[in-house]
Amino acid sequence: MGTFEAQYGWGNEAVEAGLHNAIKDILEDQDDDGLSQIIIIGDMPANTEAQMEMKQADKGAEYWKKHFPQLAPAETLISTHFVPR
User: What is the distance between the alpha carbons of residues 52 and 85, in angstroms, rounded to a whole number?
Assistant: First the structure.
């Protein structure tokens, strides 16, 4: 195993990006044998909507539309897809 040097990130975590991919996997799994749990581990809270917008501006709108077309704040994704109604 090699070594690496910590970069100390860019503030809060992009939890929304991980949740977006997990939700996509769940919705595309037709036979229910795929993802059954999502475990989030981080050293900072999830990005706020304002932080998402600022960080997305750095990469450009086209990048985010291509890779994360339905991206929303983590709290919105969790309440929409995982909290029983």
Answer: 27
